[in-house]
Specification:
The complex is a heterodimer of chains A (117) and B (116).
Chain A: E1 4-7, E2 10-13, E3 19-25, E4 32-38, E5 44-51, E6 57-58, E7 67-73, E8 76-81, E9 90-97, E10 106-108, E11 112-116
Parallel strand pairs in A: 2-11
Antiparallel strand pairs in A: 1-3, 3-8, 4-5, 4-9, 5-6, 7-8, 9-10, 9-11
Chain B: E1 3-6, E2 10-14, E3 19-21, E4 23-26, E5 31-38, E6 45-50, E7 56-58, E8 64-68, E9 73-78, E10 87-97, E11 100-101, E12 105-106, E13 110-115
Parallel strand pairs in B: 2-13
Antiparallel strand pairs in B: 1-4, 3-9, 5-6, 5-10, 7-8, 8-9, 10-11, 10-12, 10-13
Classes of the chains: A mainly beta (117), B mainly beta (116).
Chain lengths: 117, 116
């Protein structure tokens, strides 16, 4: 149980285009999902907290107009990187908090490798 | 704001050696503590976690960690490492607020290499 999927696993896009990344909880409901960014050989950095049915909460320094988050259902959150630039190239990882487990734990997706050319 | 510090960025050990990876956090309130492992090309996996209770927690694959509140530490240990333990290890912390635990603050990670 507690499986989180991400789609796509890899994406290459041209500078100036937008890319949407999906995060799904497959076998549990997640009112809250988190989006992280992992730079090469660096740790994960929390970008934003995505709450079902409400606006996302962004961490300091993360541009909300660039990284659009939509959490339309209890099993799906999307991250859209708008007008992508090469510096947005990174590994994006989502996690989902299992409401049924007392909301303590979060389960990670496999990540999405974004390359902007 | 909370922060997590991992002291060892690269560790090289021989098989059967004992392992201890240091982790300190800064936050004055109640926190939840985690160790995650990321094997090459794979996604994050939870090794162990501490929420409350016994400060010595046991995780998967023979790992354990001890929460020492007075030292703000949560060091990871394994008595005898194997070649398959080669991976990146991350210490992480979050706190409880509102309806559940917050997003995680991660340390910079420790790259562990086990030599056969």
């Amino acid at each position: 149980g507690a499986v989180v999927s991400q789609h796509p696993s890899r994406v290459i896009c041209k500078s100036g285009t937008s890319v949407k990344i999906e995060c799904r909880s497959l076998d549990f409901q997640a009112t809250t999902m988190f989006w992280y960014r992992q730079f090469p050989k660096k740790s994960l950095m929390l970008m934003a907290t995505s709450n079902e049915g409400s606006k996302a909460t962004y961490e300091q320094g993360v541009e909300k107009d660039k990284f659009l988050i939509n959490h339309a259902s209890l099993t799906l959150s999307t991250l859209t990187v708008t007008s992508a630039h090469p510096e947005d190239s990174s590994f994006y990882i989502c996690s989902a908090r299992d409401l049924g487990q007392g909301a303590y734990e979060q389960y990670f997706g496999p990540g999405t490798r974004l390359t902007v050319t | 704001a909370q922060s997590v510090s991992q002291h060892n960025h690269h560790v090289i050990l021989s098989e059967a050696a004992s392992l201890e990876l240091g982790c300190n956090y800064s936050y004055g309130g109640t926190v939840n503590l985690f160790w995650y492992v990321q094997y090459p090309g794979q996604h994050l996996q939870l090794l162990l976690k501490y929420f409350s209770g016994d400060p010595l927690v046991k995780g998967i694959k023979g790992f354990e960690a001890e929460f020492i509140k007075s030292k703000f530490s949560f060091n990871l240990r394994k008595p005898s490492v194997q070649w398959s333990d080669t991976a990146e290890y991350f210490c992480a912390v979050n706190k409880w607020s509102g309806g559940g635990a917050d997003g995680l603050t991660f340390g910079k990670g420790t790259h562990l290499i086990i030599q056969p």
